[in-house]
Write a structure and sequence with these properties.
The protein is globular and about 50 Å long. It is α/β, with parallel strands linked by helices. The chain has 4 helices and 6 strands.
Length: 138
């Protein structure tokens, strides 16, 4: 049996997130994994690493889209609400791809002013709107 192709996307620093590191290790143990993120894992891992080298959300989304179209993965793993916006994109281009969503954060309301509040509200909106299209949430 062939191992599935997997894209794991995380718009977060894997070097300080034990949860992302463990999730990436799990993906690697299951199949041929491509990791799309803003920086490299600390340890040498047996996967293809595609990084933006800086925290640039548009560049991250573009890199993910290019990898999605190029690889056409069997499984996509998305980490947290910055990746929720990718769900309709995956469904539109690869409707049979199995989507796993790692919702590890509880987003409490910020003070009702400023850019952080607006971003948090937008990310919560994407989660509420698109999580119904995901195959597995943990």
């Amino acid at each position: 049996m062939n191992k599935p192709s997997i894209i794991f996307a995380a718009y977060e620093n894997i070097q300080i997130s034990n949860r992302i590191q463990k999730c990436l290790n799990a993906c690697i143990s299951i199949g041929k994994t491509t990791f799309v993120s803003i920086n490299k894992p600390l340890d040498k891992m047996n996967c293809n690493v595609c990084i933006t080298w800086r925290r640039n959300y548009i560049l991250f989304l573009l890199l993910f889209f290019l990898k999605l179209i190029n690889i056409k993965p069997d499984i996509v793993v998305l980490h947290d609400n910055y990746c929720a916006v990718l769900i309709p994109l995956i469904k539109a281009f690869l409707p049979n791809t199995f989507i796993v969503y790692d919702s590890s954060e509880l987003y409490l309301e910020y003070q009702k002013r400023g850019i952080k509040y607006k971003i948090a509200k937008l990310m919560i909106y994407f989660e509420i709107k698109y999580l119904k299209d995901v195959n597995l949430i943990f």
